[in-house]
Amino acid sequence: MRKIVDALRAGYALPSRPPWTYGLVCGLAIGVPLLIGAMLNAPHEGASVALGAYLVAFGDASGIPYGARSRRLLAMTAFVTAGVGIGALMRPVPWVAVAVIGALAALSARSTWVGLPPVLGMVIAYFGGTSPGAAMLLPLTALGGLVLSAAVLAPWPMRRMRPLREAFATAFETLADLVEGGTGTPLPDARWEPLRRAASVALDDARTAYAYYGYPVAAVDRAPGLVLEALVRVFDETVALRSLRQAAGEAVRSTAWPEELDRALSAQARALRATPLGGGSECAAEAMAAAAGFAEHVESVREQALAGEERLSASAILGQVRRSVERLTVAVRAASALSLESARPAPRLPRFSLPAWPRWEQGLGAHPVRLGAITALAMALTIPIHSHLGKWFVITVLVSLRPTYGDTVDRVTLRIAGTTLGSAAAAVVLVLAPGSYTLALIVFVSASIGFALRGVSYGYWSIFSTPLVMLLSNYAVPLGWEAAEIRVILTMAGGVLALLGARLLWPRGERVRLPLRVADMLDAHAALARALAGQRLDGFDDLVDVAGRAADKVGESLDRLAKEPGGQPPEALRSALTYAGRVRDDTLTVAAVHRVNEAGSARASGLLDAVADRLFGLAHAVRTGERPAAADDLDEALEEVASRVGALARLRRGEVESGRAEQMTPVRREFLFIAAAHPALRTLAVDAVKLSAAVERGVPAGRGRRRPGRVGGAAGGSVS
């Protein structure tokens, strides 16, 4: 009962402002054909046009660019029309309809290109009710889809670049928050991670938006692509600065530099926020001046180190902080100098290239097969009824059965509640004021409110979509209390069947997929360390993205596992996701040091190879169920790095005393790299060990397991 109450409370919450304008457009596209049909004494024809518009609107995806959206809507119109036609043709052969509709339901769950609307159209057409005749059904359905497409796409020629600008503006804002989060006392992970996550998601959204606009924007103006590259550099350097700042705080004796660094970072954040508003150039100039002031202070610390008043390793770390600030400043200036307003391609018809087929939805496991089987069963159970009302039983199964049992419970609860309220409301209104114009008004109001709320509340969508579908699919049948009662009963029966299907057919599939996804995550993070060991920085950001997506898939599996019967996601794997994020941050910091110090170090490469070997070995153990390999040499490799830092510091001090302070000798080059990278390497080793330990606790593999080895650092202490 508590789960039902929680589902109702969440289902009727409004987390964001509904798009009322979009809802009004859909309401007009669906309601006006009914009104015209009533005026021309052709109600069935008007209902067929309105139903086509409804089904295409059901498959619409708002917020994507003009060309991509137009392709999607026109393709959906073709699929819906085909589905309606096939459904009408199968009326005389019900057992063929059982097989075909079940197969198409499975395809709709598997293919992102087909979706659910063609299946709904096929079901509605098969059960019939009323129709204008087979000769007119297909063109009228297609006309409805085209009317909806034209209405939805009408504003795009005037504001076709709006989604792109909005995506980039959000990226600028979230990156400004991230940069600002690096000022002052370092934020704890609990406060830093949401900022990092928001910036990463915003960059992904901006990358997706630009990919949609790849043609024709890229052919006219490369500015958006260059801005995106600059924003990625801002993200990388900000993440690296957090670790470098912590290391500098432990090593540098001077206490004045943090204030100068905060001033520089705050100026960068202001420049990022001002860029979408048109004031980025002025703020970027201020940011450059603030960075120059910080560089002067770092130079004074270097002079103190050369004079023996400060440690050389501290100067090297602070020097790396300065170089990261400079790279951040250059990236912010580049993003501010490139104006998105210059991307103004001339209006043109969208390109209709064929999609890569098939476009499969990943990570669903056996759900498509389950949905197809339960839908076919629902169709078979309706054959003895011989009533057009049987469609509600099948439709409830189609829209309620979800990939997990918990999601199915939530969806069935909201579906039954919405159907009860919507059916009763529609019946009351029609009893008080029957007639074609009343029907058209109810459809218009229900569509306008329902499609506005659909993206933010499934509960409200269920309430308003109920009278909408009932009226459109059975336009000539009087909708009274009896029809409302039957609809509620069939909806409840369909919900029960959906729950049984989710509970009995492959209810625990995520438990099988989770270990494989954990292994993929370990492999992706091991690849980061291996690339750094070989000093392969080309495409490193892509490797970081791959590792982040692999971790996201593990998080999705844990969320789904929690919704399976008896599912209890291991808390250790939640911790593993946190440590995986730290590993990515550590590798970004080491990569930042590599970009300005190409010399590298054999000791550092040895440590990075040891980290990669540990993660690769554990991934193999998780994937095969074998026991992990014997303890590795992470401790030894880290001790070698620490001793190398000390040895190079002594050699470098000798060079300074001999008058070679400004010469870029091999000793100085290696010292600059390894002294700056040592803190990040140390935390990388520690986080890799913690990641391994968390995975071993969360995904047992084999018996007689060893305990993770300990990693010690030059600063003292070993970390288990």
TrEMBL record:
- State whether keyword Transmembrane helix applies: yes
Q: Where in the cell is it found?
A: Membrane
Give residue spans, biased composition: Gly residues.
710-720
Q: What is its main location?
A: membrane
Which controlled-vocabulary keywords does the entry list? Membrane, Transmembrane, Transmembrane helix
The record's listing under InterPro entries reads: IVT-Associated, Memb_transporter_dom
Q: Where is this region: Disordered?
A: 700-720
Topology relative to the membrane? Multi-pass membrane protein
Keyword presence, Transmembrane helix: yes
Q: Where is the Integral membrane bound transporter domain?
A: 386-500
What cellular component terms from Gene Ontology apply here?
membrane
What is the name listed in the Swiss-Prot or TrEMBL entry for this protein? Answer: Uncharacterized membrane protein YccC
